Amino acid sequence: MNWLEKDQHYIMSTYQRLPIVVEKGEGNYLYDSEQNKYLDLFTGLAVNIVGHSHPYLLGKLKEQADQFLHISNMFINKPAVRLAERLIELSIPGKVFFANSGAEATEAAVKLVHKWGSSQETPKKGIAVLEKSFHGRTLGVIQLTRQPGIYQDFPAADYPVYEVEAENLEALEEVLKTNQPAAFLFEPILGSGGIQPVSPSFMEKAKALCEKYNVLFIVDEIQTGIGRTGTFFAYERADITPDVILFAKGIGGGLPLGGMIAGEHVQEVFHPGDHGTTFGPSPLSAAMGNAVLDVLYEQNELENGRERAEYLWSRLEDWKNESEGFVQEIRGLGMMIGVVLNADASFVKTLQERLLAKGFMFNITQQRIIRLLPPLTLERAEVDAFVETLAEEMNALKERSVQ
User: Fold this and answer.
1) What are the CA-CA distances from residue 336 to residues 92, 94, 242, 357, 400 (Å)?
2) Alpha carbon distances (Å) from 301 to 24, 294, 297, 372
3) Average confidence score pLDDT of the chain
4) Helices (H), 17-129
5) Of 398, 382, 342, 349, nearest to 51 (Cα)?
6) 258 φ, ψ (degrees, to nearest 5)
7) Helices H, strands E: what count in the chain?
8) Which residue ranges form the domains of the chain, and what is each CATH number?
9) What pLDDT does 146 receive?
10) Are 396 and 346 in contact (CB under 8 A)?
11) pTM for this prediction
């Protein structure tokens, strides 16, 4: 059997694979077993924020590996303490709980919300979320992901979930006033929901409503965080202070790492034994997290990434303007972009396959939206090559569809 056949034979089919056997990642590129080269424009679904095999990250990884790979949470984990300190400095006063993934971070938040809500003078239960939100697939949080086909076939944990349309403040206030949930949880940009940004105005007014009704205001920065949208966290474009921030993906530099930052008035909700995880955080992952912050701030990749994102947006907007309406919308922020075409899912899937054959990888969400999650290290020449090839292949596919 070849590798594709072995994958299908031995690994459960929970993902639809692209037919690529990856041998190496270097810089902004992946290389397959036949030494074909691909510009990676979805970076492990927003994980490889500074590309693959970044030499500084690898150096820090080896440095930590030479010391120890794992220790019990019964001991002080210096890389984790240092990373927590830096995350607090970059966000809100409070304390950090580390986990191994975004879903685990959300699980921790659900437990924190439940314990906090139970302790209130009038107990509060449940979480309000936005339509088309994505907050994980584990049983504890699957009902928070409001997308058809994800949560319907599985049992749900015993807490109510209230679904609210994004930007609809009247609906949100009605839920907060009538149902008295313990928390409102949202993504600043709905990722799997179609790269839909939430406006700063909505975030600010939603925060005010949460304060009015004594509801925790929780921002899911798992995909939007760690510099992807131009600021360290995407909520920073609004004048708000979250009660809890969830993070993962880009912070580990390619290794599993996630967690939540709990603000000062909820930082002591958990007591020893309330929650935990054997591997959270791995010293290796924490060391990589510190290295990612070094690259973003000490090596100026966050600032450089903003400039590169502006250039990518300008090229995409030019392409949209020349498409005669076929490119319906380009939305998102920074290096988190959704391209909506006036085309069906089959067209977009075929376009993805044609770009892959030309050496460009991108993701699709909501069946017909091109999702771009490039590294902050994307170069102008790479942007030019991608946009030009995308335009050529789209036009060729349109002509073939007409014939």
Assistant:
1) 23, 28, 21, 23, 30
2) 23, 9, 7, 18
3) 95
4) 43-46, 55-65, 78-90, 102-118
5) 382
6) -155, -175
7) 11, 17
8) 73-268+277-298 (3.40.640.10)
9) 87
10) no
11) 0.96
